[in-house]
Amino acid sequence: SVVDARFEQEACARMEVKASEFLRSKTMKLVEQPTLQELLEQHGVANK
C-alpha cells in the first residue's frame, strides 16, 4: 500500500493484524504535498 495519509497506513496495519493467517502487507508513507524533487525521490525509493 502506498499512502499519503497516516490513517490509511494505520488501517492497513490493523487489517493485517486481524487477518494475519492469510494476509501480508507493506506500507510506504509518502510526503504530503511533495515538491517535484521529493516526488521523484519517493518514486525512486518505491521502485527499488
Tell me what the structure shows:
The chain has 48 residues and is mainly α. Helix content is 50%, strand content 8%. A two-stranded parallel ribbon has the order 1-2. Strand 1, helix 1 and strand 2 form a beta-alpha-beta unit. It is elongated, with a radius of gyration of 13 Å. The chain starts with a strand and ends with a helix.
Please tell me what the overall shape is.
elongated
Number of distinct beta strands: 2
Query: What structural class do helix, strand and pairing data support?
Result: mainly alpha
| Strand line-up in the sheet with most strands | 1-2
- In which range does the helix fraction lie? 40-55%
Q: How many separate structural domains?
A: 1
Low-confidence stretches: none
Percent range for β-strand residues: 5-15%
On the 0 to 100 scale, the average pLDDT is 83
- End-to-end gap: 15 Å
- Helices and strands, in order, run as EHEH
Biggest sheet, open or closed, and with what strands and sense? 2 strands, parallel
Number of helices: 2
Taking all Cα atoms into account, the compactness measure Rg is: 13 Å
